[in-house]
Design goal:
- InterPro entries: LRR_dom_sf, LRR_N_plant-typ, LRR_R13L4/SHOC2-like, RLP23-like, TPR-like_helical_dom_sf, TPR_rpt.
- It contains two helices and 18 strands.
- It is mainly beta.
- The strands form two sheets. It has an eleven-stranded mixed β-sheet, with no helix packed on it.
- A hairpin with a 2-residue loop joins strand 2 and strand 3.
- It has one domain: Alpha-Beta Horseshoe (Leucine-rich repeat, LRR (right-handed beta-alpha superhelix)).
């Protein structure tokens, strides 16, 4: 049974109304908040709030003035709905934000762009719509970005190329279109690129086409070309996987070890 959740307003005020409150049995005034389930502290300050898969339900209503030292916020795999509040952008020390597998709607807040310490952002498995905000290019410390399984539209912003240490980019099952900008090639640390079934709608930059054509000539049975993957170890498709090709050329992505596409 889903648990109503409004933690940031007053965790104690709603506890009595919970129909399935055993997860929060430690949440009472007689127990230090640093000992509450899902809460971690340093020097008495809350630095981590991790409550994945707790059947929590409701809007994410945030009052963040007392959580300025939060570095980890993990609420994935619950039943949150409504818009993600822009006030999340006030968590300036945040390094990990996991809100995947909920029912959030609306747009990705542009305020995320001020979370410059963020290295993990998972918003997958929601109902987020609209374009990916250009401000995401401000997240120069980002290493993992998963926006899959939403209804995002528009093109991939060129600003994402600023995330030069990005290692995993997952965009599958959206409504993105337009060309993938060559700036994505600036993500020289990228090891996993998951385009799923959207790679044909996105298109690829001209600089990579020659590599693709070469690979198609040498390995015609694999549909999409893999010649651009200089250091790949495995390429995953909807029909299985294959080991390192014997022939490839070096361009575009230089560290990619895993590419996932769905072949029609």
């Amino acid at each position: 049974m889903a648990v109503p959740f409004n933690i940031f307003v007053s965790p104690l005020s709603f506890k009595g109304s919970l129909k399935n409150s055993h997860f929060f049995s430690s949440w009472h005034s007689a127990t230090p908040h640093c000992n509450w389930v899902g809460v971690m502290c340093q020097l008495g300050r809350v630095t981590s709030l991790s409550l994945p898969s707790r059947y929590l339900k409701g809007n994410l209503s945030l009052s963040l003035t007392s959580l300025s030292f939060l570095t980890i916020l993990n609420l994935e795999d619950n039943q949150f709905f409504g818009e993600i509040p822009g006030d999340v952008g006030r968590l300036l020390n945040l390094k990990t934000l996991r809100l995947g597998s909920n029912s959030f709607s609306g747009k990705i807040p542009s305020e995320f762009g001020v979370l410059t310490k963020l290295h993990t952002l998972d918003l997958s498995g929601n109902a987020l719509a609209g374009e990916i905000p250009e401000s995401i290019g401000n997240l120069t410390n980002l290493q993992f970005l998963d926006l899959s399984n939403n209804i995002l539209s528009g093109s991939l912003p060129v600003e994402i190329g600023s995330a030069v240490i990005l290692q995993r980019l997952v965009l599958s099952n959206n409504r993105l279109k337009g060309n993938i900008s060559i700036e994505l090639g600036d993500c020289v640390s990228l090891t996993t690129l998951d385009l799923g079934n959207i790679y044909k709608a996105l298109g690829m930059p001209q600089e990579a086409i020659a590599c693709y054509q070469h690979a198609l000539q040498t390995r015609p049975n694999y549909g999409m070309a893999y010649g651009n993957l200089a250091n790949e170890k495995e390429i995953k498709t909807a029909t299985g996987s294959m080991s390192r090709p014997k022939v490839w050329c070096v361009c575009f992505f230089f560290s990619l070890i895993s590419l996932f596409i769905i072949r029609n």
